[in-house]
Amino acid sequence: MVQELTPESLGLTVCSKPTVAESSVPVVRDLRTEYRELAFDICRVKEDYRDAGFRGMLQRQFGTIQDLIVDVFTGPGLHPTIGNIVPESGTALGLSLNDEWHRAQSPHLRFTTSVEGRASENGFWAAGAVAHIQFDLYRTYDVAPFRMPQATIAIKHFDLPKMPFFGLGNQTSRRDRSLFELTETELPILLDFPVAYGLTLSAQFTALHAASDPSPTFLSRFPEASAPGRQSRTTYVVPGLIATYRSPDVLYGLSGEARVGYEAYEALAGGPFSFDRFEAWTAVHYGIEDQPFAEATFPYVRALLGSSRLSAEANLIISEARRHSSVPFYLQPTLGGGDIHNENWLRSYANYRFRAPNVVAYGLTYERRLIDPIGISVFAQWGKVGRDVGELDFDRLKHSVGIGLTLRLGGRSVAEFSFAWGGGEDTRFYATGNTNNAIGFGARAAGTIGLRGVF
Amino acid sequence: MAKTTGRREWLSMVARGAAATTLGVFGHPRAARPDDGCGSPCIKHIIVLMMENRSFDHMLGLLMSEIPDLRGVRVGEWSNVDDKGNVHALTADAAYQGQFRVDPPHDFWSAHQQIYLHPGDRTPPQPPRPDMRGFAATYARAGGNPAHVMKCFSPERLPTIRALAKNYLVCDNWFASLPGPTNPNRAFAHFGTSFGRVDNGPVWFMMLDRRVQHGIYGRLRDRGKTSKIYYYNQQSGTVAMTFLPSYYFGLYRDFVSDCKNNALPDYAFIEPPYVDQDDGTLAADHHPDNFVLAGDQFIRNVYEAIRSSDEVWRSTLLLILWDEHGGIFDHVSPPTLPYADSFRSPVGFAFDRLGVRVGAIVVSPYVTPGVSHALFEHASIPATVTQQFIGRPDIHAPYRREQRAATLQQLLVDMSPRMDRPEFERAPRRSEGGPGHVMPASWSESRPWDRPTSGPTRSPSSLQIEHVREVHRLLASRNAKLARALDPHGLTSQREVAQFMRLALAALHPELEGRDS
Question: If we measure between CA atoms, which residue out of B143, B136, B56 comes closest to residue B102?
Fold first, then answer.
C-alpha cells in the first residue's frame, strides 16, 4: 500500500518525484532514474513559471533550469551531445548512452560504459563505445586517496569525408589544399598500472583499420611518393608502452607532467606500411599566488604578476618506418590549428597545415587574472615537421603568437577564447574548453558525475 | 514538533554531566575571544573538511558499542517499512561501494518524506510526525534496494574515522542546515544561509548579491584575516568556484605544503576529490556510490598533514563533517528551531527546521575524547570562525541562523595541547573487503562484534582509557614503583579498568580504602 504525504500537509508547495520500479538491468535502471529526474526538473520549472512567469522564474529559481540542463546533458542514461568530431567537421550533434554496469567492493570493481554517435553539418560522423574498469589488485598512495589499476576498452569508428591535406613537410602551400576521405575503425585496450609518486605505467594494444579515399584534385596534385598510402586500406595491430608522470597539482609553485610512449604499428594487410612511433611530451607550470596569502619576497613584482601561471610545454613525435616500408600520410602527425586529436599547436595556421612523420613543438603560455572570473593569456608556439628526424632542429621553426581571454574558476583557467597570428598565413580565432566535472562535464575517467560519452 | 526524551537520551545527559565533571579536573572550557589574539586555548587555524552525503548513523552510529555516550544505534534496533510492507531493519553490513547504484533521493521534498512519511500506516498521524520512517520507501520509489539505506558501517571498516572519533570529540547532535541537497547545505557552511534556496542548481551562487557573495571569506578579508578553499584538483573542482575570486583558492597539495611550512591561512575549507580521476585516483568524498575507504584514507591524510608540523597542530581546530545525509537513514528526528532564517523559500519553507543528522568530529589538541550533545548545524561553521577571528556572531554575522548558531569554542578545553596520536588500524585489504568477513586489525584480537555490548567484559570507553592514562601519570609522580607495576596499556575490558582504578586509587588515596560499597 502506498501512503502519500502531501507537501500541503507540511505547508509547502513543491513537486515530488514519480515512483519508478527497481531494476537490475543497468540500462533500464538508468533510463528510469533519468526519467524520474527529468520529470521532477520539468515540474519545478513549470511550477516556477506558474508562480511568477519568466522573469520570476529566472530571478527566483534559476537553479531549477540549471538542474534541468545538467540532467539533460550529463549523468547516467541517454543524453544529447553537442560539439565537434575533429577540426573541420563543423558542429556535431549526437546521442550518448552512459551506464555503470557493475560496481562492487570486494574486490573493488567498477565497470562503466558509454555508447555514443555523432554527425556533423559537414557530413562527418562517428560512433563508438568505451568501457572503463577499475581493479583493486593493489593500491598506490600518492597525495591523498589511493589509485588502483584500471583498464579502458573502446571501439570507435570515424567517417571523415573532407579532411584537408597540404602535402608533407614544412614547405607546402595553402594553394595545394586538397581533400581526402579518411575512415578509421579502432579498438584500443589500455591498461594503467599506477606505480607511486604520480608515476603510471601503461600497456596498450590497439587494432586499427584505416582507409584513405582522396579526391581527384588530391590525386592530381600528390603522387604516391609525396603522399604514401594515398589510396590504401591498412590494418594494424599496435602494441605499445607508455609511462606517465604527473606531479601533485598545485595552483602556485612548481608542478609538472610528462608522458613518454612507444608504439609499434605492425601492418597486417594493406601494404608495406609498418613503422615504429616514439612520443614524448612534457609540461612544466609555475603558479604565482595573489596577495594576501603569499609571503612576498619581491612584493612589487608579485603585485604586478598577480594571480598568474606560467607554463612551458614541449612535444616530440618520431615515426620510424621499417625497412621497405613507409608511414601512410593519414597516420602522420600534424601541426597547425587543431590536429585530429583536437590538440592545438601553431594556432595561427590552418587545421592540419603541416604534416610529416616527425614533429617537434614548443609552447609558452602566461595566464593572469584580470577581474574574476575573467583572465588574460598570451602564448607563443614554435614547431616544425620533418620527413627525417634530423630535420627537427631549431632552424626555421614555424611560430604563432596569440592573446586570449580566459574563463577562470577556482583559480584556474577552464576555457579560453584566443586570437593567434604569425607565420604570414592570416590570423585565426580559437575557442578551447577545459570544462570541469564539478559542474557536470567530465573527462574520461571511470567517473561518476562526469560521464559524457565517447568523444 | 513533539520530541520525547528517551532512556538513552537520559543516560547520555547523565554521562555528559559526568564527563563535564571529569573535564573540570583538568581544565575548563572557554570561548576564544578576539581581543586576546588567538584566544585561550590559542587557535590560529580553523580547518573544515566537509564530506558528502552520509548520515550520522550510517557512518558513526555503530560506534556506540565503543563510545557508550554516543547517541548511536545498535543492529536491529531500528527499522523502516517500504510501500509493500516489507520491513528493513538496521544492519551493520554497509559496503564501501555497490549498494547505491541509484543515488538515494535527498532533494528537498524527498528529505521531507524520509522524515515524515509513515508507509504502511493506515492512519498516518496528523499533523505529520517526524518519525524517520520514510527512508526505505523513498529509496524504493527511486528504483533502489530499500534495504541498503538502512545499512551502517561497522566501526572497524572505517579505521580513520573510528580512531579520530575515539580519540577526539564527536558531535552527535549536528544536523544538516536544511532537509535538502548538497548546495544549499554547503551554502550554510560558507554564508550562514542559503538565501532562501532549497534546490541544488550548480551555479546559483553566481546570482548572489555582490555585497555578500564572499560569505565568511569576504568577512575575514575585510578584517585583515586570511582564508582559503583547498580543492583537490581541477578535474574535481570546487562548489565554491562560482562565487569566490581566484585568490581564495588552493589545491589540496598546496594545503599539504602549507601545513608543513606553517603557512596556513586563518580559516581553511577543504573539498575532497569528488570524482574518480583520469589517473585512477578514486573519488574520496563519500558520496554514494564512491569508494568509502578512499574517503577514510583522505581524512587520514588531512590529519597527517596537520600533524606534520607541531606548531600548526598546537594551534589548530579541525572539523570533519558531512554536508547532508544523502538519503540514508538516521534515527534522530531533526529539531525545529525557535527562529527562522532571514530568508524564506519560495516553496514556503522558513528554514526553521533542520535537516537530517550528520556526523561531525572535532579534532584538536584542546579537546578530550568524548561526545558533545550540543546542537550544531552548518551555520555553526561561519559562526565559529567569526567568533574566533572577528567577534561575536550575533553582532557580526549578517543573517539570523548564523547569528543564533552554537559555536565550537565551547568544546575547547584550556589545557596543555595534546601531542598524543591515535592508533590507526590498517585499512581492510582487497581480500577483506566484504561486509561480514572483514579481517580485524590483528588476528590476535577477538572480533569487535564478538565482544558483548554490555557487562564488565565490554570494551572500555575512550573516556575511561583517557582517565586511566591520566591517573597513571599521577601515580607515576607519586608512587613510581606501583606505576611501573600497573600497565595502563592493554586494558581490554571495563572490568580490567575497574581493577586498575581500584588499585591506583588505593595507592593515591589510602584514606578512602574500604569506603566504597
Answer: B143
